[in-house]
Each structure stands twice: as C-alpha cells, then as structure tokens.
Specification:
alpha/beta; two-stranded antiparallel ribbon; single chain; 9 helices; 10-stranded parallel sheet; globular
Length: about 300
C-alpha cells in the first residue's frame, strides 16, 4: 500500500487566528473557549508589516500563558523578518515555559516588497528557498546540545554561536510550502506541511502530497512522519444549504474532513470562518464538526 493511503495519526483540530490589534478581547475569548472545548491547536498568522496586526510572537506568548493544554504555533513565521537563531531561542524558551506546547510554522515570506520595506531581504523565489534551507539548519543547530556551532550560509549563518536552552520537547518545523522547490524541501528537511484551503484545494493536496512523499523517500525519511496541517477557511451553515467544499452544514464538513484525513493524510485542521459571527462559527466547529470527524475516522 502506498504510504499516502494510510493516515499515520488521529486528527487534531484547531483555530486560525488573525492577530488584529483591535480584536484582542475576541482572540482571548476564542482561545479560552478552545481550551475548554477540546480543541488542540492555535495557529496565528505572521505578517509583521501589517500595521493593524499585533506582533504574532508576543500574542502567542500572551495567549499561551493563559492556557494549560493547547499547543500554539505561528501560521507561519515570516523568516525574512525573524532572525532564525533568535527565533529558535524564542521557540525553545516558550516551549519550556508552557511545558512543551509550542511548534514552529515557518515560511519563506510571501510579500517581498512589504518585507523589504521593513528592512528584510528582497529575495527571488530561488533565493527564498535557499534562505529557508539555511534558516532550518540554523534553528536545528540552536536546539542542539552542542557547545558551539558553525553553520555556513549566504543569508543565515552561525559563526561559533552557543546553542541553548534546549526546548522541553522537540518542536516540529512545519513549512508553509506551495511551489515545487518548497514542497521538495518539506519532504527533505521539515517535520510538517501547512497548506491553506484558499490556495490548496483537495486536488492540489494530492499532487503536492505526492511530491513531498517522494522527496522524503529519496532522502530516506518516512513520509508518514511528516505532519499535514490544513488551514480551513469556509462557512458552517445552519440552514442545510450546501454550496460545496467548506461551504455547507456540519454534515458536509464532517464528510469533507473525514475524506481529507483518509485520502490526503491530513492530520490537523485549523479553522477560521469566512462569513458569519466568528464566535458562533467556532462553536459549531468545536461542538458539531470536530467530535463527529473524530468518531467517524475512528470507526
């Protein structure tokens, strides 16, 4: 059997939060609800150049310290504006402070002009992949128990840095990857893949997932060890209206997510509604969708 045909772990469920500065009370409310409603993950997008957004890492720290069970991750961290050695130390520090509840979503940066406006590198697509490859090496070295590390690089390097502290658990590096080179890098070097439904429909998931699996196998890695964390944007309707994928009643969502887990090996679903009251939508997701999917795939 092809490894893609067999899910490797039970599904997890979480929320995708937009770090709007004027919406902090609702972000706090939704996180508190997720903690008590049995959800697993909170992902927060990272666009430092967006003037209306809180700093993602500061927000993650504040929300994580209010909880005891949820796992948090930047969805995904903007590497060109976050020094990878310092980012590694931030991840390790909060992982220790939260008892091992931090993962690292990481991206090459999708808005080069805005990144350059804040002093970051304005990189070509090929350079972005090279920089991300170097950044992954730096982060892993900073999580090691070596006394001193040197990592060569054009964009990110270490020249005798002293790693530490080590994180409490081994945080995964989950890449927000879309293009062929990024997908290959995911299979070669990453612990997870974070596609978004806005640009990765099910047919894309199948094609891209095969590229990741093939790259992992070529690197002598187990493809099933690479997590697949899917950002869901859609609406859970309450009137029985079914407009298709991620736009229908809870029953349609249960069928869609169960199929994604079974056929595409998606093992985490990160939800944010595109329409309707966000609080009400999140309640429907946590109470009507997530438990039914868990039961469906376990049967």
């Amino acid at each position: 059997m092809h490894t893609r045909d067999k899910p490797s772990r039970p599904p997890e469920f979480g929320l995708f939060l937009i770090p709007e500065a004027d919406n902090l009370p609702q972000l706090t409310e939704l996180t508190t609800y997720a903690e008590t409603a049995g959800l697993d993950l909170i992902g927060i997008q990272d666009h430092p150049y967006q003037r209306r957004f809180l700093d993602t890492w500061t927000l993650i720290t504040g929300l994580a310290m209010r909880t005891e069970r949820l796992t948090f991750f930047p969805d995904v961290a903007n590497l060109p504006l976050r020094n990878p050695a310092v980012l590694a130390k931030s991840i390790a520090s909060l992982d220790i402070m939260t008892g091992g509840r931090i993962q690292l979503g990481l991206g090459a940066g999708g808005f080069p002009d805005a990144i350059a406006a804040m002093g970051g590198y304005h990189l070509s697509p090929a350079q972005s992949v090279q920089a991300l490859t170097e950044g992954i090496a730096v982060i892993r070295a900073m999580w090691s128990d070596q006394r001193s590390v040197r990592i060569p690089g054009t964009f990110h390097l270490l020249a005798g840095a002293h790693p530490g502290p080590r994180p409490q658990h081994d945080p995964g590096i989950w890449l927000g990857a879309k293009g062929p080179r990024m997908l290959t890098l995911t299979g070669q070097r990453a612990d997870g893949w974070v596609p978004s439904a806005a640009w990765a429909p099910p047919e894309f998931l199948a094609e891209a997932g095969k590229r990741i699996d093939d790259a992992a196998a070529a690197a002598q890695r187990d493809p099933r060890a690479i997590r697949r964390v899917y950002n869901l944007s859609g609406t859970i309707t309450d009137d029985g209206t079914d407009h298709g994928f991620l736009e229908g009643p809870p029953e349609r969502w249960v069928d869609d997510l169960s199929a994604l887990h079974r056929d595409q090996r998606i093992d985490a679903f990160i939800f944010w509604p595109t329409e309707g009251d966000p609080v009400e939508q999140v309640h429907r997701y946590a109470e009507s969708v997530a438990p039914a999917v868990r039961a469906n795939v376990a049967s």
